[in-house]
Amino acid sequence: MDEAQIRREALDALQRIAPEVEVESLRPDRLLRDEVDLDSMDWLRYISALHQRLGVNIPEADYQLLISLDAVVAYLHKRLEEGANS
Length: 86
Fold this sequence. Notes:
Layout: H1 3-17, H2 32-36, H3 40-54, H4 69-84
């Protein structure tokens, strides 16, 4: 899966958690939780949705790496690549 596909999946998952978010206006380099105003519960639902959609296990220790949309996409891409090479 390429980064564009991962980005679409990440944005679709985000839109399902927070339908009021206008994903086209998100700045991919800004702090994602601040940009979309997700509370802790919504953030966990988002992480879970990413796992369900992409099959990537995201350990709690890695949550701090997922600071922006760009970071989410890069993280997921790396994990998917690692899985494909295992």
